[in-house]
Structure formats: structure tokens, C-alpha cells
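Sample pair:
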Amino acid sequence: MHALVYTRPNEVRLEERPYPEMADGEVILRIEAAGICGSDMHAYHGHDPRRKPGLVLGHEFAGVVVESRDASLAPGERVSGNPSITCGACDPCLQGRENLCSTRTMVGMTRPGAFAEFMSIPARALIRLPADMAADTAALTEPAATALHAVNLAQRALHRPMQEGRVLVLGGGAIGLLCALLLRHHGVDRVTVVEPNAGRAASVRRHAGCTVLESADEAAASPDHDLVLDCVGAAATRRTAFAAVRPGGVVVHVGLQDWASEIDMRKLTLAEVTLAGAFTYTLADMRATVGLLARGAFGDLAWIERRGLADGPAAFDDLHNGRTASAKVLLKPAA
């Protein structure tokens, strides 16, 4: 089968790989669409030691079951799913917080991913799709569930309904745009997105219908945001988040571009700012997200860019060089 393989920093290549092996409890999927994530780009740049050369990347997917060694799924069923393979027995898993499982493995990190014609995965990680849901829509389940998880966590931390306040989203990539779209769906009128890439900024304005700033300086100069969602997770965006949040406000840290930096602990304490980390999603989040996508809660998704799997090297290069305005590029093996 054809697969897109990470071979060395700043290089992915289309290669022939063996058809996947399937263990008990697993299925083999024919991949219909798979999205390029920011963490795939992080690996592409050689910045993720967990993703080593020789790996098939990709963990945002929609596919069709072609073989099954689990009674719960039959060939022909269309699915998306959770790329994190959890133990199901630890305290977080039993509490429904399986995103915090300490022994989890992951598609596209510790096992071959979805940038291929076929992929194996445990059946328990999969979610059935509505019969009429397009594969391109279904492939957004994973990033959209990340947005849903972050927004739900933020609402629990806020003292008042988010519809009453001002929200700042840092980053207009897929997670930032999906957060903005979900906030707008929930009736939050005062949403501002910071996105320095002019093409992406224009796309956010067009599709999310919110205020977009191409520089963080203006946002940092206005410390009146009730909620700040940092969907980048860089040292600079953390500084902006703390500068922009109002006393008693909430900062939700979603992105993980940089692994460590200083934060303004003095403001966090004196202004009673709540800082929360939001890591991925649960399976319940993903099921809820499929329903939201089916109902059009994230809009018409016209901002998605579609390419064939064979065009994967060029797609990664275009994303690396900022040549695409789309917040999400999908790779389609059959295209």
C-alpha cells in the first residue's frame, strides 16, 4: 500500500509499506481522509522526539472498516475515532477522563498512522458515523473535539456564562478557528482571534465572522477579556494571554508549541486568574463532536483544503512555508 512516511526533519515521502497487521480486538480501515495536524508539523520539523523517522504520521481520520477481529464492528461500517489508545483500567480511564491515561499509546506516534491507504486500530477507539456524513467532515472529528473539550472546560471555570463576556482566541489554525466557530455557535458575540498569517486571518474573518487581529500587541494592550484560549502554546502567546485576561478571568492553555516558559505568576495571584490546561478530548467529547458536525455547528467547512496522498510532501512543504491560507489540509488516498 502507499503511505506517507516521515523520513527526516523537513521531509516526508510517499513509500510502499506492507498491508497492516491486525491483532484481536482490532480492525483495518481503508482511510478516506486524514488531516495534517500542528503536531504532525511539529514532528516534520524534527521537534518531537516521540515521533521518529520511518513513522507514518496522521491521527485525524475518517475511514471504512474493511476487516474486523472485533464483534462490535463489521466490514463496511464508516468510522472516525480516538487516536489515543488507552488502557481502560486506570483511575482516569474509569472516571471517563481517558485523555489523562498515563500508559496511552497513539496512532501516528507509537504505531503507524492515517497517512496511508490502510491502517489498523483497536475497535474500542472508533465511533460510528452517520450514514450521510461526508468523509471530509468526519475527518475533522479529532481537532473539533479538542476545541469542544477546551470550550467546555472554559465554561466550567468561568464565573459567568461565556455569552456575557469577551473571548480572545490566540491562533487561527484549525483548533483556534474551530474554537471560534463553536463559540459563535454557542451565541458568544464578542470573539476576537489573533492570527499573524494574513491569509489565515482573512479566512477566519470570512468563516467565523469575528474580529481578527494580525498582531498580538493590540490584544495584549486590552486586559479586558474574560476568557483567553491559547491555541498556539508558545512563550509569546502565553505572555499575550496573561496580558489580555481581565482580573478574575480564565486562561485555557490548549496548544503545545513550546514545552516550557515563564508565566506571570504575580498577575495570576493578584488578579485571581484561573489557568487551566486542556489536553485533547475524551471519547464522550468525540461522540458529541460527531453530533455537532452532523448538525452543522461548525459552519459549512468551506475553509478545508483537500489534496491527494501523493501530494503530501508538497502539502507539508506549503504548510511549512506558510503558502496555504487553509487551517486544515486533508490528505485523501483515493484522490
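The mean pLDDT is 95.
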